[in-house]
Amino acid sequence: MNMSIVSFEADEQRQHARYKLPLKCVIDQHRYSSIDWSLGGVGVATGDATFEEGQVLPLQLQIPLDGFDMMLPVKAEVRHSSVETGRTGFKFVGTSPAAQRMLRYIHDSYISGELVEGNDILDFARRASGEVKLRPRKSGEAVPGAGNFRKAVGIVATLVLSLALAAFLASSLYTRLWVFEADSAVVTVDTVPVLAPANGIITNLVTGPVKSGERILTVLTESGQSTSVVASCDCTAEPIGPAVDTQIKVGAQVLGLRHADAKPHVVAMVDRSHLMALYKAPHVSVDLPQGTVLHDVAVSQLPKVSEQSAATSDRVAVKIDLGGHDLTAEIGTPAVVRFDNGPWFGLNQWIADMTGRILPK
């Protein structure tokens, strides 16, 4: 009985699976990085260097281990070499059984994830042959796994930045829905106005600490008579603008009297479109020029709107109580006032603070 015999031939070029495992290749005393390698050959990043196809060259395979580099001499035939790709492909030829076993051992150890130490390799090499050499790694050479570490760091950094960006977008949406700012604001203190008693020229003006009944303002009228104003309290007289020897009109404010127990506060000018939101008891924060942010503050006086004021002004004044904060030194400085009617005031403020530290402004 005749039987047909069918034979199969393996593809010689891809007889062995290729892996991107750490490996260096020394050719003519030049050290190159491998692109990939297998039990049958190695792809080397040769850059501008080219080699003649079919040429057989002695190679030194430098395989990084835990603290050592294994040097394995082999012979390889140039299968292709290109400047355009910067790659040269080598096929191992005439590889001794001992070298083949050593490559197999290293290959299987990497694939299985086992940590291969220098002593293990040395014991295996002694049993196989004397072809394998170990040398300590120099301090300037890359440590195996450094690429993986950098990759992990990059992943973590990307994750952190992604979370920060997501938090920033969430905070921006929250701000658009529930947060609004005052058009302008200033740290100030309540004072009693001192008005000019008549038309004329200021001949006397007292500022600083004054006593009740002390003459603080004198105006020389057009008729040549002097008219004076006395302090109504033991307080501090603060100048408003006009100075001595300047012309003044009756009723114009010249001084402000500040009581000793007067507390600084913030007056914020808010667009009238936010008037209803102000009556919903929003959370308030005050940003000062030196970077201080006050959160434990509150609206102490809501604006009263009349028909006349509604017709003449697009903004309303809101008085902000600063609680236990003493801002006497900040009187006259501007501030930024935010009103938050959202349900997660504390969380949104924390997110805004954290993203402000991480993301550039």
UniProtKB/TrEMBL annotation:
Keywords: Membrane, Transmembrane, Transmembrane helix. The chain crosses the membrane at residues 152-174. The keyword Membrane applies. Residues 12-105 form the PilZ domain. It comes from the Bacteria. GO terms for molecular function: cyclic-di-GMP binding. The keyword Transmembrane helix applies. InterPro entries: PilZ_domain (IPR009875). This is PilZ domain-containing protein.
